[in-house]
Amino acid sequence: MGIQHFRLPDVGEGLVEAEIVSWKVKPGDTVKLNDTVVEIETAKSLVELPVPFAGTIAELLVPEGETVPVGTPIIAVQTDSAGDETPPADAGTEDLVPAIPEPDNGGRTAVLVGYGPRTTEAKRRPRKSAGLASAPAVEVPAPAPVPEPVVAKSNEPAGSVHVLAKPPVRKLAKDLGVDLSTVTATGPGGIITRADVEGHVEAPAPVVEVAPVVSGRGDTRVPVKGVQKVMAQAMVASAFTAPHVTEWITVDVSATMELVDRLKGDKAFRDLKVSPLLIVAKAVTLAARRTPVINAAWDEPAQEIVYKGAVNLGIAAATPRGLIVPNIKNADVLTLPELCAALNDLVATAREGKTQPADQAGGSFTITNVGVFGVDAGTPIINPGEAAILAFGAIRKQPWVVDDEIVPRWITTLALSFDHRLIDGEKGSTFLADVAGILEDPARALMF
Fold this sequence. Notes:
This protein has helices at 167-176, 194-202, 226-239, 254-264, 276-290, 336-351, 357-360, 425-440, and strands spanning 2-7, 17-23, 30-31, 36-41, 46-50, 55-60, 67-69, 73-79, 164-165, 191-192, 244-252, 296-299, 304-307, 313-315, 317-319, 322-324, 327-328, 365-368, 388-392, 396-402, 405-419. It is α+β, with helices and mostly antiparallel strands.
């Protein structure tokens, strides 16, 4: 029998780290090959990981809520055969960085089942116990004594008091603006734990009797990571790369609202949720036929405009973990019931946080439905790799002039932001007017 250490893999996104969100197993549980053992959050989505071998869970090596680099041992499984005896990340290494398997004497690199070999080298400090990672082992070793806490190197000046803390805890303290020298340690051997840092932030600040001052409530710092971090980087890159132009149009969508009511009673839409967003989505795919540059992209290195062969329609979705933009592949060839079903599935999956990276890749045009928040319109930022984005505002009953009479009508506002490098004012205006025209009179869809 032996211990196999399952290392955090690159799940096919080229990412370097992930957060352990929730464990699906506990020590003592029996697992089969490819059983789901953990849910992680990458920079793009939540992903469930299967274990690449069978056996009994010996230890969970990383707690929930901690972010670790790819290659870090995250779970130990006792199997029927001798396995990778590499110790956990915090067992006797100088800097507590997890070890990546080194090539063996034949020049081959040890890899995980189902995950290809690493293409980059990982540099780390030598182990205190030379040869520990590469020494072959056949049987499970006796439990090792708890290692003494390691003093991580810091930039503290000579003569200052060293604090004992692991690198992830130091990073947390830095993110939260906490001076570790002021934190009371409760870990074994005087090491500062994650809970110590978090408790220090939550604890009231000590009263220092100096000049009387008015003290407000303490600030709270939250690390930017995962989906939110990638979203922020993408929005900055888009806003300062593509020259944005935004146009607005206010539309009487009373006919669209009547169509939605009729579709709700149609048997083709049984068990489907029909909303005005469905008609907007269909209008976008139809209007893109007359203005195909709307469904294009600017290739800066090649200095080319790439006209996309299909409309992969993205729908911006606000989730508890940040904004994501999953897209419906080939939305332009779907029937209205098929498009409705695809929208329903996209929204439900996004709300559950289960949208996969493949569902977010390859988008060609995006709709952001700000109306669900009661907002009339805005100036949306183009999703990277696309040429335009449409903001769909709230639908409200308002006074409107019809045949020289003021009558109550359902009104909304559309706002189109587009990349002015490839879309000029005429093309942007034509597309926006076409979408508005279909919403104002859905029968116009027959013209496209």
